[in-house]
Each structure stands twice: as C-alpha cells, then as structure tokens.
Write a structure and sequence with these properties.
This protein has about 270 residues and is an alpha/beta fold. The protein has a single domain (about 1-250), classed as Alpha-Beta Complex (Spore Coat Polysaccharide Biosynthesis Protein SpsA, Chain A). About 40% of the residues lie in helices and about 15% in strands. The protein has a 7-stranded mixed β-sheet, with helices on both faces. Strands 6-9 form a two-stranded parallel ribbon. α2 packs parallel to α3 (about 55-65), α6 runs parallel beside α9 (about 230-250) and α8 runs parallel beside α9 (about 230-250). It is globular and about 50 Å long. Mean pLDDT is about 85; it is low at about 1-10 and about 260-265.
C-alpha cells in the first residue's frame, strides 16, 4: 500500500500517456492495454497502421472499457515505426500531457516498469529503459538479435560520441519539453535508426538523460517487424548524423548516466 501511495503522489501534478505503434497486434494489444491500466494511472494512445487483423477494433473495444483513457490514431496503411511515433508524439503534444512514453505492443516491455520510468523522470528529461546497464537483461532472445541490437548500440555510441549503453531500445519516457524542443518532422528514420536519432537529438539539446535497467523479453505472439532494411538504415543514418555533426563543428561532452534499479517488477496497483 505504501508503494502504491508513493507512486500516486509522484503522479500528482503530472499527466502521462503511453504511445504504442501497432501493425497486426490484435492479440497482444487486447492483453496489453488492461495490463497498463492495472499498473499505472496512464492514458494509452495506439497508433495503428491499418492492421488487417482488426487491431483497431480491439482498441476501440478497450476504449469503451476504459472511457477517456484509451485512444486510437488510425492510419490508412503501413507507414513505418518512426512516422507512427512522430504522429503519436504530435497528438500528445496537442494535449496537456506532461510525460510521454513509448513502448512496444508485444510485451517485450513489461507495463509494470512504467512507474519506475516515471519515477526516474524526476531526475531527468528523458529516461531510457536499458537492457545493457547493470541490472538490465534480455530473456529468450536469439543470439543474432542480441548481436544486432548490442552491436548497433556500440556502433552508434562510438561514432556519435554519446555514453549511453542502449541506443536502439524503444522503451522511453519523455518530459514534454524534450519533444517540444525537437524538430520531429525532420526525423525521417524508422526502426533502430529512429530510436538512435531521437536520443541523439535530445542529447545534442543538452537535456538530462538517464538509463534505467529493464528486463526485455522476446515476444510470444506475432512476428518481429525487424528486417535487413531496418538494420541497413541504422548503419547509414548513424554515418549521416556523424557527418552532420562534424560539419557543424560542435559536440556536447560525452555523457554516461544510469540509475540502478532492481530487476524485480513492482506489484499491480491495488484497486481503488
């Protein structure tokens, strides 16, 4: 009860929304939205790219079950992860949300971790859910996915000069002023490249960024959207960012900050 009370106190004066892009995630989103409602007093915005499996219909049903807390941004066709997040962030910025989260729809990111990211935002403008700091881990991920993800973070970190360990992850909490300061329309990357560029742009603006260890689990329903094109885009986009940075002739000092947290997940909020 004390833990739940402290979480509620931290939420006073703030309003949070979780942005979740989807494409053919009907079974996952059917379970994920109620799980988020159990763990945190957050709203949810699903950005669906015209999923043929009826994902949008599932979201509408959840919206009826949780009036005023579940929202749908329905796009006509598959337009990419990066543009889905930009659309979702823009939607949130048009409303009075103080904290804007991003997370996957497939339970790779556990909703029980959301309150920990919110708590960490008391000390930071951008909180990265990190698999690669002390206390972070991955579960049931094939070796080649680990290699691509970990290798991509190391590659981006060294070329761009940033000190963060997990640059390819998609579990984040932004204070609204971060997204207001970024030129979201200028970010055209998708996949890993989008996640790298978003954090890099925030770092360039001098925002306080911390990493919080998370447990990342492989999806059990549906198929991964990651392919060679996404990996190739990340490699090229990092090179482009490095080139632009050199031409500008200015770079912030390298930073490495993380907030150690236990891997154990908090209990659900007790019913009111």
């Amino acid at each position: 009860m004390a833990q739940a009370k402290s979480i509620q106190q931290r939420e006073l004066g703030s309003r949070s929304v979780v942005v979740i892009p989807t494409y053919n995630e009907a079974e996952n989103i059917r379970r994920l939205i109620p799980a988020i409602m159990d763990y945190a007093a957050f709203d949810v915005l699903v950005v669906d790219d015209g999923s043929p499996d009826g994902t949008a219909d599932v979201v509408q049903t959840c919206a009826g079950a949780f009036p005023g807390r579940v929202h749908l941004l329905n796009r006509a066709r598959k337009l990419g992860l990066g543009t889905a997040y930009v659309a979702g962030f823009s939607w949130a910025l048009q409303r009075d949300y103080t904290h804007i989260f991003e997370m996957d729809a497939d339970f790779s990111h556990h909703p029980a971790t959301l309150p920990r990211l919110l708590a960490a935002s008391e000390q930071a403008d951008l909180v990265l859910g990190s698999r690669y700091v002390r206390g972070g881990r991955t579960i049931n991920w094939p070796w080649h996915r680990k290699l691509i993800s970990r290798g991509g973070s190391i590659y981006a970190r060294r070329l761009l000069g940033v000190g963060f360990q997990d640059l390819t992850g998609g579990f984040k909490c932004f204070r609204r002023q971060v997204l207001e300061a970024l030129d979201l329309d200028a970010i055209s990357s998708t996949g890993y490249a989008f996640q790298i560029e978003l954090t890099y742009r925030a770092w360039q603006h001098g925002f306080r960024i911390v990493e919080v260890p998370i447990t990342f689990a492989e999806r059990t329903v549906g198929t991964s959207k990651m392919d060679r094109a996404i990996v190739g885009e990340a490699v090229l986009r990092v090179l482009q960012l490095r080139r632009q940075d050199r031409q500008a002739g200015q770079r912030p000092a390298p930073t490495r900050t993380f907030l150690p947290q236990p891997v154990a997940l908090p209990r659900k909020r007790p019913a009111k």
